[in-house]
TrEMBL record:
Annotated pathway: Carbohydrate metabolism; galactose metabolism
PANTHER family: UDP-GLUCOSE 4-EPIMERASE
Catalytic activity: UDP-alpha-D-glucose = UDP-alpha-D-galactose
Enzyme Commission no: 5.1.3.2
Protein name: UDP-glucose 4-epimerase
Cofactor(s), by name: NAD(+)
Species name: Phaeodactylibacter xiamenensis
Pfam families in the cross-refs: GDP_Man_Dehyd (PF16363)
Gene Ontology cellular component annotations, sorted alphabetically: cytosol
């Protein structure tokens, strides 16, 4: 059984990916300092998969602790590196914290992979590396524009670090996955997005407004040059995204990688407007959603969505879910989460 280290394994995408990895026969350990998560998610993973995953609650910026973990697991075949701080607005307020955390953790992980001969890394990148993209849909060859935030710059820099690393270590396989807008939860509603910091992404804000955790949702602008005036994004279900990581690992382990660094866009290839997303939520759940239209949010791009043909052709990956599945599963998870809080 291939053993994989998932960094950020208690986080949102990491936890869903662990479920998909276990379902596909991988052995997994996690390293997560719980700065934006809790180990309760390991209970949910155990309920779904029947397996208890061990988490090392270490800060990956601590080289000694990171190395001790690698030393204990000399049989690792790969690392999926999710661990990072991810709030765009916060990164503008605290750029040094973002550079320190997101870059030092990556550098330490790469350093340990060399020392302990772990040959495969999958890195969480983001569509934010494209900035205000010059063409739609975005392909992996669309030029990267100026980063819109320190967060996005940590992703561009992370990609560059891995490019340079690969030139020195040609036997390593390096995959950069550029996620578009991940959302949704596992079908079982045993795991979902449960950050310890306040939600700011559209889908959790929708479910929180619908359940009454917040007074209303504000649509950030309806005067853009789009079909209904609101911004367009490519919302990808987190379980489809999770499965792309499994497929990427299977691809490198089978020796199919065509170059030292390969980049894949992960989206569903369709743009959805903010107002369409709200309508999908109301139609799928039958719930009311208190919302009003407000001003534009500074830094928002008007429209972005992916061309994912490369992932389909090379990884054999296809998204199977759409925005309605995202709303259905997010709502189921929000109800479970809110009840758990009420009962506590
Ligand atoms: P998340 O915050 O839920 O998960 C990240 C996890 O990493 C958290 O559990 C956190 O505690 C942990 N972590 C952070 N710094 C650490 C450190 N120094 N040492 C150990 N653990 C650390 O975020 P997510 O949504 O699951 O995102 C996972 C990855 O995907 C991140 O790299 C993020 O930048 C990237 N990404 C996310 C999105 C999105 O919208 N969710 C989109 C594109 C890319
Ligand atoms: C989606 C749309 C908002 C909240 C961010 C990062 C990106 C990636 C994904 C990490 C936009 C609108 C939102 C609300 C709204 N993350 N909106 N009211 O900004 O596309 O992408 O997350 O890598 O890098 O930038 O995602 O969910 O914040 O916004 O109208 O209360 O919903 O204006 O059009 P975004 P989002």
């Amino acid at each position: 059984m291939h053993k994989i280290l998932v960094t950020g394994g208690c986080g949102y995408i990491g936890s869903h990916t662990i479920v998909d990895l276990i379902d596909n026969g991988f052995d997994v350990i996690s390293a997560d300092n719980l700065s934006n998560s809790s180990e309760e998610v390991l209970d949910g993973i155990e309920t779904i998969t029947g397996r208890r995953v061990k988490n090392y609650a270490i800060d990956l910026c601590d080289l000694e602790a990171t190395e001790a973990m690698f030393r204990e697991h000399s049989d690792l075949v790969g690392v999926i590196h999710f661990a990072a701080l991810k709030h765009v607005g916060e990164s503008v307020e605290q750029p040094i914290r973002y550079f320190r955390n997101n870059l030092n953790s990556l550098i330490n992980v790469l350093d340990c992979m060399v020392r302990y001969e772990v040959p495969n890394i999958i890195f969480s990148s983001s569509c934010s590396v494209y900035g205000n993209a010059s063409e739609l849909p975005v392909t992996e060859n669309t030029p990267l524009e100026e980063a819109e935030s320190p967060y996005a710059r940590t992703k561009q820099m992370g990609e560059h670090i891995i490019q340079d690393f690969s030139r020195r270590h040609p036997n390593h396989n390096n995959i950069l996955l550029r996620y578009f807008n991940p959302a949704g939860a596992h079908e079982s509603a045993k795991i979902g997005e449960s950050p310890t910091t306040p939600a700011s992404n559209l889908v959790p804000v929708i479910t929180e407004a619908a359940i009454g955790k917040r007074k209303e949702l504000v649509v950030f602008g309806d005067d853009y040059d789009t079909r209904d005036g609101s911004c367009i994004r490519d919302y990808i279900h987190v379980m489809d995204l999770a499965n792309a990581h499994t497929k990427a690992l299977q691809y490198v382990i089978a020796g199919k990688q065509e170059g030292p660094v390969e980049i894949f866009n992960l989206g569903i290839g369709e743009g959805v407007t903010v107002l369409e997303a709200l309508n999908s939520f109301m139609a799928v759940t039958g719930e009311d959603l208190p919302y009003r239209v407000g001003p534009r949010r500074p830094g928002d791009v008007v429209a972005i969505y992916a061309n994912y043909k490369k992932a389909a052709d090379q990884l054999g990956w296809q998204p199977e879910r759409d925005v309605n599945d995202i709303m259905r599963t997010s709502w189921a998870w929000e109800k479970v989460r809110s009840n758990a809080v009420k009962e506590a």
